[in-house]
From TrEMBL:
One Gene Ontology cellular component: membrane
Positions of region (Disordered): 416-446
Source species, domain of life: Bacteria
Protein name according to UniProt: CBS domain-containing protein
Protein's organism: Gordonia soli NBRC 108243
Length: 446
């Protein structure tokens, strides 16, 4: 299939990126372009490529050998593993430029004169010098009559005005195209993508996400980014998002804020939502009481295996938290009645659905105490080969459960989401994808 020299950036998103031997490297997620003060055509500098590890890196357009309907192929060389970083004067085509407002002066589109239109795509083409430049802009006019949306027109770049860095920094830009990228993505991957965007664009996208989705994404951001994003939300919206977060994650975030601000938010929250968060805040953040979730899977001894498995299947429960169900006497809200024991997921799968969990209790498994340290928790999980463990107080009440993902989050450096060990490494794309330590770095812009 022949390579193309002209393509719209939205068509590139999702295409496989292949090395010269056909080895898959990742997928295109965006195109980095230069945004100039002058009317000169912006250059397409490179591709934002998402590796199989979900890391996004920059691949220069000079490394692109061919663009076909199914894939983008790179030439011989090495690709830097440095995480994608947008520099001053640059922008992500899909993440930042699409949905912006411009004006056109095309004589063939006289009806669009003196009115704002929305950018819906950018056409790029390769020049004789092998550079790629933005040559065309697809725009959509406002709705007319009974039409649900306006018509789409393709305009030459020279006829478009207002697509500048200053304009991109103005408020009120749409987010439809940017949000379409995030459909079906895990919250952690959306968080990575948001971190690549300027604060203004990130806040616009955050404002458009529903409370549950934003809460999930917020939980995957580094603490400093969490605080910044939350502080830029309207106060009532910030409260709604905190209520949608898991209590332990909400407690972690509030623990990063000044006491007066945290208390102000807690007072606005629904008492049923704020009460477990307040309890978690009474514990030191590096103890079992500070790391635990107050909402593990809790059932009574008379609950059937079928009912318990139905709880385990809840997609909002992490795999670690779903590995154990905790059995207590009523009440089942934490702090519960007397803790009786736990039931392992494997045991549930081996039992007839009509049986009750009281007959398959593991009463011998040791439990954690709320004041237990990080070392104690680490030894506990290693000793019993668990990924989740109960936290019980001196009176025998279940307070919550610690899962290994929360423990790892605390053990790793505070900025582990921002820096990774292989940030400065490189991968060859000549003989497969085996990492090497050498090679000329091709990740820099010219």
């Amino acid at each position: 299939m022949s390579s193309v020299s002209k393509v719209f950036v939205a068509r590139l998103v999702g295409l496989a990126v292949l090395g010269p031997d056909g080895e898959s490297i990742g997928r295109v997620r965006d195109v980095v372009i230069s945004v100039r003060i002058t009317t000169q055509q912006p250059r397409a500098l490179g591709l934002a490529v998402e590796l199989t590890t979900r890391r996004r890196i920059f691949v220069p357009m000079l490394r692109v050998t061919s663009v076909e309907s199914h894939a983008v192929t790179l030439n011989t060389g090495t690709v830097s593993l440095r995480r994608l970083h947008i520099r001053p004067g640059e922008a992500l085509a899909v993440g930042q430029v699409l949905d912006s407002r411009v004006r056109v002066d095309d004589p063939d589109l006289a009806d669009l004169a003196d009115q704002d239109v929305t950018v819906v795509d950018l056409g790029i083409e390769r020049t004789r010098t092998r550079d790629w430049v933005v040559s065309r802009v697809a725009v959509r006019s406002g709705r007319k009559g009974l039409r649900r949306r306006g018509e789409t027109h393709v305009v030459e770049w020279a006829r478009v005005h207002g697509l500048t860095q200053t304009a991109l920094n103005l408020p009120g830009q749409g987010v439809a195209q940017a949000l379409s990228q995030f459909e079906g993505m895990r919250a952690a991957d959306v968080a990575h993508a948001l971190r690549e965007l300027p604060t203004k664009r990130r806040d616009e996208i955050a404002a458009a996400l529903d409370d549950e989705r934003l809460a999930d994404v917020l939980q995957e951001l580094p603490p400093d980014d969490q605080k910044d994003l939350l502080s830029n939300l309207p106060r009532d919206r910030a409260v709604d998002v905190l209520e949608a977060m898991d209590p332990d994650d909400a407690a972690d975030l509030l623990g990063e804020l000044p006491d007066t601000e945290a208390e102000s938010l807690l007072e606005r929250m629904d008492p049923l939502e704020s009460e477990p968060v307040r309890r978690l805040l009474t514990h030191s953040p590096d103890t079992a009481g500070g790391l635990m979730t107050s909402e593990p899977i809790i059932v009574t001894a008379s609950t059937t295996v079928a009912e318990t498995l139905a709880r385990v299947r809840d997609p909002d429960i992490t795999p670690a938290a779903a590995s154990l169900a905790f059995v207590v006497r009523p009440p089942t809200a934490t702090p519960t009645g007397k803790y009786l024991g736990c039931v392992h997921l494997q045991a549930l799968l081996r039992e007839p659905p009509a049986n009750i969990v009281g007959g398959i209790l593991d009463t011998d498994l040791a439990h954690l105490h709320p004041e237990d340290s990080l070392e104690t928790m680490t030894r506990y999980f290693a000793t019993y080969n668990l990924v989740c463990g109960p936290v019980v107080d001196d009176e025998g009440h279940l307070l919550g459960a610690v899962s290994v993902d929360d423990l790892l989050d605390e053990l790793l450096p505070r900025d582990w989401r921002e820096t990774e060990p292989e940030d400065t490494g490189e991968i060859p794309i000549v003989d497969g994808l085996t990492p090497t330590g050498g090679g000329r770095r091709l990740g820099d812009r010219r």
